[in-house]
Amino acid sequence: MDRVRAGQFAALTATGLLGTLRTLGPTRFRPCASPDCEGAFIDTSRAGRRRYCTPDLCGNRLNVANHRARRA
Ligand SMILES: [Zn+2]
Prior knowledge:
CATH superfamily: Jann2411-like domain
Number of strands: 2
Protein name: CGNR zinc finger domain-containing protein
Order of helices and strands: HEEH
Bound molecules: zinc ion
Pfam families: zf-CGNR (PF11706)
Radius of gyration: 17 Å
Shape: elongated
């Protein structure tokens, strides 16, 4: 990808991100709920109940920790 195309692509991505934020509202931009994750995400789910930047990773990590804490 050359420089101009990369620039256009970045601009398109930024526009898409802003459009998403405008459509869903600023409350949809949240930090990850996992205590040991510094990530943030835009909740694009319909219900707006997403809590983790990467549900498979951060959600699971927390579940495993809770599970271990319960057993201990
Ligand atoms: Zn996370």
